[in-house]
Amino acid sequence: MSRFAVMKKVALLFVLGVLVPSVLLALLAGRSLRDQHFVLERQQSLLYQGVADNFAKEAQTLDVSGHYSRPDILELRVKESPARRS
Asked: For 64-79, how does the pLDDT look when each residue is reduced to its tens digit (9 = 90+)?
């Protein structure tokens, strides 16, 4: 066999043994990263929904009769931070 034929086989083995698996692993890593991004977005959505539900329940308990009474409003003003009031 000529030296060129041996080099050609070595190059082919390198491509098949190193480059092809590397490219496949990179594709799988990208796919996994995309899936993890979707999972993170879903978890954030559920977390925000829980916070919104808690705020809604809190607002319902404050306003059971359909209007705020004077003590409720004063209590809300006391709980509110000074920076937010101004």
From this structure: 655 555 565 566 656 6
Domain segments of the chain as ranges: 3-85
Distance CA 76, CA 58 (A): 12
Evaluate if pTM is beyond 0.85: no
Q: Are 21 and 28 in contact (CB under 8 A)?
A: no
> Would you say 77 and 85 are in contact if contact means Cβ atoms under 8 Å apart?
yes
CA angle (35 as vertex; 29, 39 as ends), nearest 5: 140
Residue with the two structure tokens 């979707």: 38
Per the listing, tokens 């808690």 go with 54
Residue 24, amino acid = L
Determine the distance from the C-alpha atom of residue 2 to the mean position of all C-alpha atoms in its chain, rounded to a whole number. Answer: 57
